[in-house]
Structures are given as C-alpha cells and as structure tokens.
Amino acid sequence: MRLRRLRVRVSLSAILLLILSLVAIPARAAAPGDVISAQPTTVYALPGKLLEVPVNAWHLLYTSTSATGNANAVSGTLLVPKASYPLGRRPIIGYAVGTHGLGDQCAPSVSMSQGTEAELALVSLFLLKGFAVAVTDYEGLGTPGEHTYMAGISQGHAVLDSIRAATRVSGAGLSDRAPVAVMGYSQGGASAAWAAQLQPSYAPELRLKGVAAGGVPADLHAVADHLDGSANFGLGAAAGVGLDAAYPELRLVDDLNARGRALLADAADDCVGDLSKLAGLRFSDLSTVDLLNQPKWLARLSENRLGAQPPHVPLFLYHAQGDEIIPQEIGSTLRSEYCRAGVTVRWTSLPAPSHVLGAVEGGPLAIEWLALRILGLPALSNC
C-alpha cells in the first residue's frame, strides 16, 4: 500500500513537472535601452565611401520612451575604437547631432554610412581618445513614423538610451559601469541638456560625469518668435511639425490654411538644406489662428522649456555671440537658471559670427572639457 501511494505521488509529480515544462515562461518586457538589433556597419569620413573610419561600428535599433511616456524604437550608430583602452573601462559618449531634417534619409546613421556626416569630424576627436560614441537618430528619424523634431523630452530619452544600448551590444566590450558623458549642439544641444535634466530620474544607473551643450534652443517659443519671418523660418516650421508628431492633441493640420497644409506636407520628408524654401514666411502665412499662443501649444512648449530641473552633473554651455538662429540671450538665460539652482556651469561666450561657426569654434573646447570630467578632474564654475 505504501509503495502504491509512493508510486502515485511520483507519477503526479512527474505529470506536474511535465505540465510546467510545457508552459511558456513570460518574456521580460523590453526595458529602455534594450537592443532590438545590432548590425555591423561601416562608417565613412568622405563622400563616395572614399575613406573608411577604422572603428568597429554597429547600426542599432533599441527601445526608448516617447515624450508622452510610451515605449518606442529608435535607431542609431555605435562606434568603438579597435585598439584596447588602457585606462580601465572604456568611456562612452552619447553624441547628439544637430538638425538633420525630417525625412528618414536625413538620419545620421544614413549619412555616416555614406560618408556625408559633417559632425563625424567632432565624433572622431572622441574616437582618437579611445572613447566609444553612441549617436542616436532620435525618434522617428530612420525608423517608421514621424520625426519628433525638437520634442526635447523624447530626444533626451533617446540619447540616454543610446548609451544604455551601447553597453548591451554583444561584442562591443562596453561596461554598464563605464564613465559616461553627453555632448550636442543646436538640436543636439537641447537633447544633451534634456539628457542632463532627465538622467537623475530616468537613467540614474549611468555614471554620467558631465554634459556639454552648445547653441541650446532652451526656450522653443522664444526661438520660434525669433525665426518668424526670417531666412531660417523653415526650422521653426519643422519644429512645429515635430512637436505635432510628439503630441497628437496639437492637431496642427486642423489649424492650417490650404497653403500651410501644402507647404508643411511638402516639407515633411525634407532634409535641413531643403527647408530654405520656407525662408521669409511667417506662422500667420500658414494659419488664420495664432498657432503658438493657443493654450494647447503653450502647455507643450512650456513642458519642453529647459531650466526647470537642475542637472546633477557639471555642464559646459557654449554659445556664439553672432548666432542668427538661436540668439545668445536664450542660452545665457538657461545658464542663469542653472546657476541659481546650484548647478556647476562653465559658460563660454564664443566670438563666432554665426550659429554654424559656433559649433566649429566650441566643439573642440567642449570635447576637451568632457575628457577632463571623464578622467575625474573637478569642474570649475563661472556662474
């Protein structure tokens, strides 16, 4: 009798184990920065694929978070020097590019694979120091959907998650305990500053040592007012398209006149150079309502205004005195707000006579400043 009972218990146990073995264990939900795919790629420094950059590189697709808190997929490129790094864990730079455009063909991952990426000159200065560099394409640029251009919260998430993804690429040899820094100019400057503000709550595990942000469009409403009717109005219009993509309740198309709908539909897949066809226009040419002063727009523009959340790391802020696209006053106001909040800020006013030359003059200074933070040297403030 005891033997029979034992056999029954053993049989029941075996059946239970069989059932459990056949039940699929639910997969872990994707987390921000998880790698969806990482395909080896080649990066070129000159058009026509004439000069290959001697690095190991991957075209990435990784998970991130939209401006409204939804999971999304973002593409980018990871570049890792082939030589070993002699000083411990290889540092990782999250590099945020400036305005490239609205169409997928404008993405930095595309231009780097074709040898037409101008900002590769600055990225290469990091590579020469032995640092790995993660370059995000941002939400909707290089992936299905619309590019949420100038939606700072989405852009900050994309930058931080590109660094997370870099540490999860098999074969890249990068550590999730590596020192990290972020750099960007113009759209990239806003993205870098947003990464700095969001990091304490969104990616606290990243060992962020410093952030360099140049030509920062910290107040989008002020920038839009400045661009209205100017030669660079196309950038303001593109930002309207990008914010509309990020926040569906804005319903931009409903407020446009026929001319506005035609012009913005035509610009929806343009790269930055093509936006010049909107030069000289005003928002009033596109709509019969005061677009940006509607409550729904004021709320989202305020939400995407930098300065309300002080970063926990030192910042290097730089701005050209002659910036014709983003007036220096906008950058200096951000500096003042961070300084009042107790942030360690190094501010540099550049003599450059234009926005583009501000990137050229300030970029190498920012890179050297970040390298010192990576090495552990303390940052000095000039608030």
Describe this structure in words.
The chain is of the alpha/beta class and 383 residues long. 39% of the residues lie in helices and 17% in strands. The chain has helices spanning 2-22, 108-114, 120-128, 152-167, 187-202, 220-227, 233-246, 252-255, 258-267, 283-286, 295-303, 328-340, 355-374; strands at residues 35-41, 55-65, 71-81, 92-96, 132-136, 179-185, 207-214, 315-320, 345-350. Strands 1-2-3-5-4-6-7-8-9 form a nine-stranded mixed sheet, sandwiched between helices. Helix 4 (152-167) packs across helix 5 (187-202). The longest helix has 21 residues, at 2-22. It starts with a helix and ends in a 9-residue tail after the last helix. Residues 1-27 have low confidence and may be disordered.
Average pLDDT rating: 92
Q: Which architecture name of the largest domain does CATH use? A: 3-Layer(aba) Sandwich
Number of helices: 13
**CATH H-level homologous superfamily name of the largest domain:** Alpha/Beta hydrolase fold, catalytic domain
Class of secondary structure makeup: alpha/beta
Alpha carbon gap, first and last residue: 87 Å
Q: Determine Rg (CA atoms, Å).
A: 24 Å
Q: What is the CATH C-level name of the largest domain? A: Alpha Beta
Outline:
The protein has 383 residues and is α/β, with parallel strands linked by helices. It has two domains: 35-219 and 307-374, Alpha/Beta hydrolase fold, catalytic domain (Rossmann fold, 3-Layer(aba) Sandwich); 220-302, 434 Repressor (Amino-terminal Domain), CATH 1.10.260.130.
